[in-house]
Amino acid sequence: MCGIPISISAVNVTQRYQDFAHRNAGLFGLSIDSNASHIAWLINIYRNTGIEIPFPVIADRDMAISRMYGMIQPGVSGTKTVRNVFYIDPNGVIRAKLIPPNTMDAAMKRMDSSDNCMV
After folding, report:
1. What is the 3-state secondary structure (H, E, C) of 29-53?
2. pLDDT tens across 54-106, in order?
3. Which of 38, 37, 36 has the alpha carbon at shortest distance from 28?
């Protein structure tokens, strides 16, 4: 029997999507994978879980955004991103950066302690 890769983190964020919406927080995913890869990944999640991912996933093929936000971690990989959660205020200023584990509860606490953050 083969396992089918499902992103647990994307499913977890989706399950808490209303918590983010209630806090006026926008969500998006960023990956160095292609748009075609993202579409296949989203279809795979839906087919295997029935869950639709309600936020956009951005393709960062040249890794420009990933590098700018420090998502490529030295010593981990030169081409693979590390999962991060960013708090970007309405003026575009990064207020915090969290790296898993436990980013979901930390995200909720952070948003509750500030006004109109985007994650």
Report:
1. EEECCCHHHHHHHHHHHHHHHCCCC
2. 988 889 999 898 888 888 777 766 666 667 778 777 888 887 777 766 666 77
3. 38
What pLDDT shows up at residue 35?
A: 92
Domains, the chain, ranges and CATH?
8-112 (3.40.30.10)
User: What length is written for the chain?
Assistant: 119
Helix axes 8-15, 35-49, angle to 10 degrees: 70
Amino acid at 101: P
Q: Are 98 and 106 in contact (CB under 8 A)?
A: yes
Take residue 5 and report the two structure tokens written for it. Answer: 């890769």
The pTM (predicted TM-score) of the whole model is 0.70
pLDDT band at 6 (very low <50, low <70, confident <90, very high): low
